């Protein structure tokens, strides 16, 4: 029998295991081979083993395994060859009859190269096409074996390798990172009992309650089918037409119109499993569970004007940020917390936990931290890993089970199905990035692109010719939670699913003033892009059921009278347990990273105080912030005694890309900067976006020239004397943003 005691499970004390010997063979006790393996497993060619075929796999070993090392390729010091390994003499010219003559059909080298190139693209994901990923590990804080048999939670300190992909939803593969959109947060755990994929989002609820509506939702938000516009945007008629006819989307719309939908970084957003899942322990007892990832760096967002400008200045803003942080050793980290409750608790809630448009407020069920996720390695190859990774909501392991959430039900089907066309067949699980580290043994065979060389004559079960292998593991395997089922076969929804507004109101009530302002602005912006007036009116009528002030402000912003509230499905709504949940505000989640990895521009020109710039840059670096010298152009600048090397320019790196700015002292340099409209625009954007700004000595002139009001400077606008200010700047920067200076319309 398999040894299932917690301590006997192999650990993954670090990610190196992914490539090491430990990963290339099954762990002792995880597979029981037939008593005499040679009788059943050997083939006639065994004795002819050579370098290519290798030694026969050891007892119970799976050929697909071996981590990623077996497929890594390095070309260092190697000659060019064809795909058949034939050395290439000349990679410059096609084969011709005479130097000016026709190219020849027999040029198999040219044809192989072009043919491969012609097929280098695969279909992009129908949703979540644009994304970025990284490797890392999950580490459990403590054993959760009383709650779940899921092996990543087996004991304190246990590490499970993971691959995590973040994404936008609506945009195509090459679209901008900073679109207003939900972000995917998909985690593949390579556990020692198989792969578990927690395929979540950065928003804890969803637009719809039933998978039946998913294709409609996606068709509505994607570019409109007649002209293919707009790209990566929900601000258009079809999206708002659909959601305003689907009041169940109201709660999600509140989140999607909040700053949550424009995160500052993938490293600075929460993640949620969204659905209610089940934990099942070794005794078969079950609790309901919700999964929450919280970033150690805090949950931070952009503001809309900034997101728009970043999308022009650096469409790869989030991809670059994730990549650079990991390369710099600033490993992004999240804490996993669970909300655990019983079926009886769930019965009592005013909402249905099977309804993915609802959260379980933290006031009802507190969060219990259970482990941490660390991303510490960038992929070697974007296509082979980030593009070919196949997440699947159906991938669960013993200890984790589904609930009857009707949105989840559709997902359990959809993901494998979509990979079959996206990745070209049923063997996508053999791609190195998808292959589990746990052994795979079954009688599934053949199909497109099959890698495994299944040995022996037996491909069925039961069998006697293979010694009965591979065999069922009974209770040691995945046993579904025996949830009782009752009821007629019908299409419909449970009663509590009909309440659509309580939690939208809860979200609105829990936002601070500036967050509410941003929500109003986002509705106004999005609906202003809608061309059919009736759709605007319908949306505002829906918002009247959330909050009168919200609806009033949006109506005013659109220049329309307040319509009647949309009729509710329920005459009397159930009383919500809570009407205010502070945890729903971004301001409740500052994180612990302070200024680490924050990007600060120091504007430089010939004639600024070079020594002052250097000492500020040093102080920033010491605190873990990243100082960039932004000049009129890149390259060395003479500042008198010191020479500064500008690594960015006001042309290639405008103000929206930075978390803060410093204008150094030195009148001559500052005057030169003031003559450059881009430097003034840089400061205006920094001001408008609520960034931390500091002017040292004569640097003040530049701020004045940019028409930034200095009469009552807020905490994020510092005017200091030469040689001071570094500490004040750093503590203002740690506040992320200074929304108190915002006005509508912006003053600057
Ligand atoms: Fe989905 C991809 C998350 C509802 C069908 N989904 C996809 C990805 C994420 C999510 C993060 C990208 C995975 C990656 O990085 O490769 N999806 C969600 C969440 C949902 C949700 C949190 C609601 C709670 N999805 C949902 C429904 C369906 C799908 C209801 C279909 C019935 N999702 C898919 C898909 C995708 C996908 C079509 C596209 C590419 C892929 O799967 O691999 O199967």
Automatic annotation (TrEMBL):
Q: GO CC terms for this protein? A: cytosol
Q: Which segments show compositional bias classed as Polar residues?
A: 40-51, 79-94, 575-584
GO molecular-function terms, A-Z? catalase activity; heme binding; metal ion binding
Q: Where is the signal peptide?
A: none
| A matching Pfam family | Catalase_C
Q: Which UniProt keywords apply?
A: Heme, Hydrogen peroxide, Iron, Metal-binding, Oxidoreductase, Peroxidase
The prosthetic group or cofactor this protein requires is: heme
Task: List its EC numbers.
Answer: 1.11.1.6
Which EC class does it fall in? Answer: oxidoreductase
Q: Which residues bind heme?
A: 125, 165, 214, 411, 415, 422
Q: Does the keyword Metal-binding feature in the UniProt annotation? A: yes
Q: Where is this region: Disordered?
A: 1-94, 562-584
On whether Iron is a keyword of this UniProt record, the answer is yes
Q: Which domain of life is it from?
A: Bacteria
**Catalytic machinery residues:** 128, 201
Q: Catalase core domain location, by residue?
A: 81-469
Annotated GO biological processes are: hydrogen peroxide catabolic process; response to oxidative stress
Protein family according to the UniProt entry: Belongs to the catalase family. HPII subfamily.
User: By its UniProt entry, which PANTHER family does this protein fall under?
Assistant: CATALASE, CATALASE-B
What's the protein here called?
Answer: Catalase
Which species?
Answer: Orrella dioscoreae
